[in-house]
Every structure is written in structure tokens, then in C-alpha cells.
Design a protein that fits this description.
heterodimer, A: 416 residues, alpha+beta, 5-stranded mixed beta sheet, 3-stranded antiparallel beta sheet, 15 helices, 8% strand, disordered N terminus, B: 106 residues, Ubiquitin-like (UB roll), 3 helices, 22% strand, metal-binding (chain A), monooxygenase (chain A)
Chain lengths: 416, 106
């Protein structure tokens, strides 16, 4: 995202003029200082216009019900890549791969339908033993009594292994998936992971080449349960163009990478900060599914999704104009005190823990939500079976992005 | 009160009396009937309350809305009688209706 850009200095959230509030400032996200800004917007200007930012002018939608109204109105609020796509930073024209998250119906519905069964609860159930085995191996390999980076050793390793499992991807090459995911989300600039669009494209073509080899292998073998085999044998996908194949692969690699990675790290941080909740979980492991949902709400690993208005629209007293950029701040909707009780607290046995915005709502709702929940469930079942506690040794460094809400590192220690 | 019967995927049945005006997702959640999540709270926005309506009752519940159709696009094993429970509101003429739950909600 906007990594590398320090952003504007942080002003006091209570005294700054309402019209000067810019919650997209990457510095706010690096410092975890966006909370009071959103609290003020929810109270004083729930549908708020920011005239100028690093990403141009945009509307902020900050309350749960307003976000729901935008998210479920795809006739007015488009995800179309050609209009800018689904994040606050406009999708570049140079590299616009067809992927269903950045499409409107009817094309969106047809393509999503192909991918969806791959991450259905029934299909995931058959993968659970394999996933669990890999989780156990990662956890058993962790050091005791010494400080290490949970993000690298567990969160990245686990989500990468999961992706490799899902794709039946050559295991020894699995960090290529992490690399391609990082490439796909990097805005080319001097000093960045890739410096030009051409360089980015050529690496993504290597990715396509690799996956095309896997496709050819699988298409000539009996149908298997992995994602590539399903695509290669699926009636409505076996004739996909290379661009569509690559577009949907990238969507699945990125979608399955950053998000779950940061929720896993977030769960460890949340448990460290809330020892009473951790005690509750240890005493009653049946709370794990509920704790998983609460973690996903509390973390909100994607802070927002973006839409573009296709016509003028009245929302909570404000007029959004045709062509305007509209940001649905899930991170704020998940703290909306008028809908969620004690929203700033981490409570693993909430009454309705699943009623959060982190997966989005409407036709673009996260397709991999069940996989994310399964990974978090397994990892916590296995943590409880092994470790008495995981101590966080320092405040984590955070990603300086208003989109990917996550951690660059999380130093922890498991007592010997 | 209107009697509605939920049939679980394993064949187990739960008959409950629901008030006019509540929807079948709320009715299931309020009665702790497993297999219906209702993550969005009834906004036709998450497709986690997928049910099958027994054929005899289909004419009475009426057709799906366009949004419901779109959301059902990505549920599993969708049939002609698939509906989202949050989009069916209890009223007198549905008395005795039987709905079936899928194996899982996406």
C-alpha cells in the first residue's frame, strides 16, 4: 500500500477542525492513533468528506448501519476496477487483472461462484487434518524461554503453508506465494520491492508461468480436491483466459495472506492484553469459535473497502455525488457503540460475536471467511494444548497503511 | 403464534412457535436452533441463513428478491427451493411450514 510514506504529522483528534480530519493518513495507522478520530467522526460527522489526502478526496462512512447501506447497494456503489477498484488507493490502469472482487454483477457473480466451493465448509473439513498437522509442526518448532518474532515464525509461516496446502503447491517453494502476494500489493516506486510497473508485471508473469505448469499437471490427472485441480476441471473455469486465471490466483493469494496473518498476530496481542479473557478461554476451550470471531472484529485486518458512486446518493443527511470515492471504514463500524455493546473491549464470550463487519456484507463479502476462522480455531486449539502463556515483549510495529491493518512484527516469548 | 418446523441436516426436527413479524432467521437464532448463523443480523447481506422451503409452501412464501438471488449465488448446494431465512417473515398463512437446513452455511 502506501508503505514508505510517513504521512502527515498527527494532530490532536479532539481539537483538529472537523473538515481537516484525514483518517487515511498512513502515520495514524503506523502509530495506532486513528481510534479517537473515528470516535469523533461517528459522533459529529458520521458521513464525512475529506477534501484532500494522499489518495485524493474521499467520503468516510463510519457507522455500522451506514456502512451496511453502502455495502449492500452495489447498484449505486461500484467495485469496478476501471473506476478505481476496492481500496482507497486507485487501482492503476497499467496492470488491471480481471478478478471478481473488482467487478460488478453479472460477471462478478458468475466468477465468484466458481471459486466459492473451494473454501466451502464441506471442502475445508476434508483438509482439516492436514492443516492441523502443519500447525502442530510449526508450534512444536518454537523456542522456549527466548524472544522471537511471532509474525515471521508463526503468522506468515502458517498462512503461507495454508495457501500451499490449498493449492497443493510445491511445499519447498511456498515462500514464493508470500513473495508474489507482496509484489501484487506493492505500488511500484524507487526503493520499493518493485520499482516499475514493467518489473511488477514480469514477476507476475513468472507467477503465471509457475501456476500454468501446475494447471497442466492437474488437468491431465484425475480431479483432486485442491484449488488448481478444481479450476482446471471445473466446467465454468476450465476455459478461463490466462489473465483471468492469474487475476483470480492473485486475489486468492493476497486475500488468504495478509488478512489471516494479521488476525493470528492480533489474537496473540489481544490475549496478552486481556489476561482475564485468556483465563476464560483456558477454562473453557469451547469458547474458541466465539473468541475467533471476536478477534476478527477486534483486529479488523482490512480497515476498509472502497466503492465509487455511480449516481448522486443521499446518506445520513449528506449528498454523495456521482463519481465520488466512498470509503467504508469497517474498523470504525466494528467500534460503533450504538450497535455493538462495549465495542472497545475484547470480550470472547459476547452475545453475538459473529455480527461484525470485518468480512464485509453483500455480494462482495469475504469468500474465504470459513477458511480464516478454521485456521484461527485450529491454531488456538493447538496453542492451548501446548503453551501456558505467550508473553508479548514489546509494542509491535504496525503497517503504515489505511488498508492492511496489521503488524510488521510481534516479539513474544513462551516461558520455558 | 405460528408453528414452524426446522429440519436439521441430520434429520432431527425442532418445531417452534414464532410471533407474526419475526423472520425465520431470528426465529432460529432466538430458539438456539443450530445451523443458522445470521451474521448480518437479517439484512440479506451474508447468506448464512440458507434454508430449503418444502415444496408445498413455496407458493405461499413468494419469490426471492433480486438481492436474495445474488446472495444465494455463493451459498452451496442451492436448489430451486433455496431461500434466505431472514427474508421470510412469519404470518398466519405459514402455520405448519417445514423448512430444511443445509449441511453447512458458507
Amino acid at each position: 500500500m502506501a508503505d514508505g510514506n510517513a504521512g502527515a504529522p498527527i494532530e490532536d483528534a479532539t481539537s483538529i477542525a472537523l473538515e481537516d480530519i484525514d483518517v487515511s493518513n498512513p502515520a495514524l495507522w503506523a502509530a495506532d492513533s486513528h481510534w479517537p478520530y473515528f470516535a469523533r467522526l461517528r459522533k459529529e460527522a458520521p458521513v464525512h468528506y475529506c477534501k484532500a489526502s494522499l489518495f485524493g478526496p474521499y467520503w468516510s462512512i463510519t457507522k455500522y448501519n451506514d456502512i451496511m447501506a453502502v455495502d449492500t447497494n452495489h447498484q449505486v456503489f461500484s467495485s469496478e476496477a476501471a473506476l478505481g477498484g476496492i481500496a482507497i488507493i486507485d487501482q492503476g490502469a497499467e496492470l488491471r487483472l480481471p478478478m471478481f472482487i473488482a467487478m460488478d454483477p453479472p460477471k462478478h457473480d458468475a466468477q465468484r461462484k466458481v471459486v466459492s466451493p473451494i473454501v466451502s465448509p464441506m471442502n475445508l473439513a476434508t483438509m482439516e487434518p492436514l492443516i492441523r498437522g502443519r500447525v502442530q509442526q510449526i508450534l512444536d518448532g518454537l523456542p522456549r524461554g527466548e524472544t522471537f518474532d511471532w509474525v515471521d515464525r508463526v503468522s506468515i509461516e502458517l498462512t503461507t503453508q495454508m495457501l500451499a496446502t490449498l493449492f497443493d503447491f510445491p511445499f519447498e517453494d511456498r515462500r514464493k506465494l508470500t513473495y508474489w502476494s507482496d509484489i501484487a500489493t506493492t505500488i511500484p516506486a524507487p526503493g520499493m520491492l518493485v520499482e516499475t510497473e514493467e518489473e511488477k508485471l514480469s514477476i507476475l508473469m513468472e507467477c503465471l508461468g509457475y501456476f500454468t505448469r501446475l494447471w497442466n499437471e492437474r488437468v491431465n490427472a484425475p480431479p483432486g480436491g485442491d484449488l488448481i485441480s478444481m479450476l482446471a476441471h471445473g466446467e465454468s473455469t476450465r476455459n478461463m483466459s490466462p489473465e483471468e486465471y492469474l487475476g483470480n490466483l492473485i486475489l486468492l493469494i493476497v486475500g488468504g495472506n495478509d488478512t489471516t496473518r494479521n488476525s493470528i498476530s492480533g489474537s496473540v496481542l489481544a490475549m496478552h492484553r486481556n489476561p482475564d479473557e485468556f483465563a476464560k478461554l483456558k477454562a473453557n476451550p469451547d469458547l474458541i469459535p466465539s473468541m475467533v470471531s471476536e478477534t476478527i472484529r477486534w483486529q479488523t485486518p482490512l480497515a476498509h473497502m472502497r466503492r465509487t458512486a455511480l449516481e448522486d446518493f443521499e446518506l445520513s443527511g449528506q449528498t454523495i455525488k456521482k463519481g465520488d470515492k466512498v470509503i467504508m471504514w469497517y474498523v470504525s463500524g466494528n467500534r460503533d457503540e450504538t450497535v455493538i455493546e462495549r465495542p472497545d473491549e475484547y470480550i470472547i464470550d459476547r452475545e453475538r460475536p459473529r455480527q461484525h463487519m470485518s468480512f464485509g456484507f453483500g455480494i462482495h463479502r469475504c469468500v474465504g471467511n470459513r477458511l480464516a476462522e478454521l485456521q484461527l480455531k485450529i491454531i488456538w486449539e493447538e496453542i492451548l494444548a501446548r503453551f501456558d502463556r505467550i508473553e508479548v515483549m514489546a509494542e509491535p510495529e504496525r503497517v503504515p497503511s489505511p488498508f492492511v491493518k496489521g503488524y510488521l512484527n510481534l516479539l513474544v516469548r513462551i516461558p520455558a | 403464534m405460528t408453528k414452524i418446523t426446522y429440519v436439521m441436516f441430520d434429520g432431527g426436527e425442532r418445531a417452534v412457535d414464532l410471533k407474526t413479524g419475526v423472520n425465520l432467521m431470528q426465529g432460529a437464532v432466538a430458539n438456539n436452533i443450530p445451523g443458522i448463523d445470521g451474521d448480518c443480523g437479517g439484512a440479506c447481506a451474508c447468506a448464512t441463513c440458507h434454508i430449503y422451503v418444502d415444496a408445498a409452501w413455496l407458493p405461499k412464501v413468494g419469490p426471492r428478491t433480486a438481492m436474495e438471488d445474488s446472495m444465494l449465488e455463493f451459498a452451496e448446494h442451492v436448489e430451486a427451493n433455496s431461500r434466505l431465512a431472514c427474508q421470510i417473515t412469519v404470518r398466519d398463512e405459514l402455520a405448519g411450514m417445514v423448512v430444511r437446513l443445509p449441511e453447512a452455511q458458507h
